[in-house]
Amino acid sequence: MKSGPFDQYPTGLGFSYFYGFLAGETSQYNPRLYENTNPIEPPRKPEEGYHLTEDMADQAIKFIRANRALTPDRPFFIYFAPGGAHGPHHVHKEWADKYKGKFDMGWEKLRNITFEKQKAMGWIPNSTKLTPIDPTMVKWKEIPEEQRAFQLRLMEVYAGYLEHTDTQDGKVVEELERQGLFNNTLIIYVLGDNGASAEGIHGTIDELLAENALPSAYQQQMEVLNRDFGGLDALGSQHVDKMYHSSWAWALDTPFKSTKLVAAHFGGMRTPMVMSWPKAKKWKKGSTEKVIKHDPTPRSQFHHVCDIAPTIYEAVGVQFPTRVEGAKQMPLDGVSMVYTWNNVSVKERKSAQYFEVMGSRGVYKDGWFASVFGPRIPWAEANETRMREWNPDTDVWELYDLTRDFSQAEDLAKEMPDQVAKMKQIFLMEATANKVLPIGAGLYTIYYHPEEGPHSPLTEWKLYEGLTRIAESNAPGFHSGQNSLATIDVEISANASGVLYCVGGTAGGFSVYMDNGYLYAEYMSTLLYRYIAKSTTPLQPGTRKIQVRLIFETTKGLGPPADLTLFVDGQQVGWVKVEKSIRLVFDASETFDVGMDLGSPVSLLYQNRTPFKFNGKINLLHVKYINGTSMHTWWCRLIRPTISLGQLLKLDRALLGPYVLPFFLVQSRRTSFIRL
Known about the structure:
Elements: E1 19-20, E2 33-35, E3 38-40, H1 52-70, H2 93-97, H3 107-121, H4 148-178, E4 187-190, H5 208-211, H6 218-229, H7 246-252, E5 273-276, H8 308-316, E6 323-324, E7 327-328, E8 352-357, E9 360-365, E10 368-372, H9 384-389, E11 398-401, H10 417-433, H11 443-448, E12 460-463, E13 470-471, E14 484-492, E15 498-505, E16 508-515, E17 518-524, E18 530-534, E19 542-552, E20 562-568, E21 571-578, E22 591-594, E23 617-625, H12 631-638, H13 645-649, H14 653-656, E24 664-667, E25 672-675
Antiparallel strand pairs: 1-2, 2-3, 4-5, 6-7, 8-9, 9-10, 10-11, 12-23, 13-22, 14-19, 14-23, 15-16, 15-22, 16-17, 17-18, 19-20, 20-21, 24-25
């Protein structure tokens, strides 16, 4: 939020300097960047070779050099968290091309190959069993031949993206070596924040299709990809936010079951971690010298990401504070991992750890793991019945002995009901202590009540030209069921062009703009569903009052249709039916802008002219939520199901106004209605 508060920004949480993005993800080509608390634009354009992960590595190197030049005796802490290889999968073509043909065998065979390599490297125990594909997942043989090139390219792009990210990590490490700091720097490298993601479902050019529960088909995606972006080569580019097929995610989670968003199986959450600190030096009186001897043997002790902070505290000899600026601190979660550094077989010190994500849950205790799959199947479209009837009290629990079963291949729940009951109680205690209850609360806004998701408490806004980078959650909303009226007091010249206001970006958005005097309103429910209203004639120069009205047919359901209507000086000049609206979010990080479109562009019409700044003058943009009835709903209420076309045309012209002609009839179950 541009007006603050900023206490939850990184600089409000202990960091002296921040460079990066604040959202869960962002475009690698047009990222929504922040420096400390200030929104900034990338230093170069995508056409000039810009890529966020490279930029972040360069910034980390710059920080290290400044530290050595100005404060060489001061130790530093860097939290380097690039967007790679999180979605959207963005990487330059030459990186993806390195993996052409590498995955032609399909996901089942890839998983088998990976499994054998893992055992050969000693990365997993030789006794590990390879878990089979879930019956609800798609097998490679079920992919039609004509669709395989698409599926393979999605995976090739991801592989190139992963190598590219690893290369940038390497650049930072090389700088430490160049500065003579590598030996005395504790490096904790965590490969990812969860298992591979299944959110691409059947493979997608726009990952927010699944988030917004919008239907998509291969033919539909290829039509858009070929028509608008030049075909398969666009995958990995700034134009699409692609995500691989969910079965590739399963292959990438070898040897475990499931994927990201499943807390019951390690395919959803187990990731590699490496620590390095070859030759520690005493830099502070009383600090203890710690040295990690090189050892390729993986540690088997069970640990969690919450154990990283205690590890750092012990390593550098800092006592965790009980109070900060007078405020009592919560107890420190986690257990230091220092004890494992030079003793591969030392007894494990972590006794219990809970996991939970949107109803999927698990708990670890002394080698045992009990879990529940939960209501969602991440690799499949939402099952209405399954979600509606889900009751956490009747969930079926699974049980695994991790001391003998590394991959959770053998469910012992039926054989050991007493152990299951014991583990369920441990989970309840851990969940209570860590404020996890009620179970499944994360589903409340994402699935059951998206209208109650993050949003501004305002219902009316007065905005001015130049106000930009307003978070979507703080801006006027144009999501499903949110009726609105925007009034723009504007001064235009002949052939006026530029964005009046917009929210979102390439993945999805809403933009009101002018081009060569014509007025446009474009509602893009991801790349697959684009709706454009355009004025019938160019607007006359001078001071004009433009109004944009968005009325949904209903406030309920998944992505209900809406009427999007344009008015100039009180007269309707354009209209379009938005058949599928956005229920949750247009974009993960793109923002609301007045007078321009920063970041990735909403519209294809001006994608090569960004930020497409308006060349007139916007005196005021007034947006408010309104009550209203869409044309579809109005006609269905007004017209009896038995009315004839002749009777329809005899309706009072004064009542129908400009809506009579032109028209065509669309059959619904109960009636016919006019669509303009």
